[in-house]
């Protein structure tokens, strides 16, 4: 990777629902706090994120969201959505990319394989099955669920989208948190 001058980029996707994740909180003794939700909603928001690392550079977070109410009826990312995300990352990072991601069926489609083969600036490695502990983006999802979306009742799907985007935007400027997510995997970058 260092010989290529490439960015090491990890990808993962996650879903966020209208039902808030609960975390611990404080309250007066005998007064258990309650988060009231006005009804169940099956609306979800899918997010794909890239955690980007390069020795001598600040870490970066690039993401795209995909609400489940899309005009084409699709509820998740297509291979073209991933292609566009990778292309955006290449433009923003300005250099070759070594992409590490899981074995999601969308990552393995013929269109995606063709796209990867046609790009000399893109090298792809797949994580072994059931190894989320090797992907720093999993740490980003954990931080987001423990902070931005925890103990919060969303008024509507747009409120959920706004909250998740705001949390991710804040994390983009927290290079220490992004670096900590990489460190949490046991991986590190050696400076040249």
UniProtKB/TrEMBL annotation:
<feature type="domain" description="Tc1-like transposase DDE">
    <location>
        <begin position="8"/>
        <end position="160"/>
    </location>
</feature>
<dbReference type="Pfam" id="PF13358">
    <property type="entry name" value="DDE_3"/>
</dbReference>
<protein>
    <recommendedName>
        <fullName>Tc1-like transposase DDE domain-containing protein</fullName>
    </recommendedName>
</protein>
<dbReference type="InterPro" id="IPR036397">
    <property type="entry name" value="RNaseH_sf"/>
</dbReference>
<dbReference type="GO" id="GO:0003676">
    <property type="term" value="F:nucleic acid binding"/>
</dbReference>
<dbReference type="InterPro" id="IPR038717">
    <property type="entry name" value="Tc1-like_DDE_dom"/>
</dbReference>
């Amino acid at each position: 990777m260092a010989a290529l001058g490439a960015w090491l980029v990890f990808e993962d996707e996650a879903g966020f629902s209208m039902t808030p994740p609960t975390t611990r909180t404080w309250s007066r003794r005998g007064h258990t706090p309650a988060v009231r939700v006005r009804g169940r909603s099956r609306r979800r928001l899918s997010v794909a994120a890239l955690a980007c690392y390069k020795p001598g550079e600040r870490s970066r977070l690039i993401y795209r969201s995909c609400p489940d109410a899309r005009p084409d009826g699709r509820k998740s990312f297509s291979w073209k959505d991933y292609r566009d995300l990778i292309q955006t990352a290449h433009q923003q990072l300005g250099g070759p990319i070594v992409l590490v991601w899981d074995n999601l069926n969308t990552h393995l489609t013929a269109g995606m394989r063709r796209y990867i083969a046609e790009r000399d600036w893109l090298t792809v490695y797949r994580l072994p099955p059931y190894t989320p502990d090797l992907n720093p983006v999993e740490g980003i999802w954990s931080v987001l669920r423990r902070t931005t979306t925890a103990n919060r009742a969303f008024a509507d799907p747009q409120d959920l989208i706004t909250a998740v985007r705001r949390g991710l935007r804040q994390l983009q400027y927290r290079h220490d948190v992004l670096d900590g997510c990489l460190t949490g995997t046991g991986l590190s970058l050696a400076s040249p």
